[in-house]
Description:
- There is one protein chain.
- The protein is mainly α.
- The chain is built from two helices and no strands.
- The longest helix is centred in the first third of the chain and has 11 residues, at 2-12.
Amino acid sequence: MIITLMEWGDRHLAGEAGPPRVAEHKDCGGHVVSQLVCEECARPLPVDEVDSRATRSELSTVAG
């Protein structure tokens, strides 16, 4: 979750000097990014394979 928030901030809020912090892999120094993974089958997913649906909680809020 923290990496995801950092990525969002880096993309939308970083100034001309760049982001205030970066996440790097300790072993090789590569940039760390978040990835969508299916909790059921553990397969990495591209965004176009992800669907969003309302939950009962959201539906009761809208109806109430």
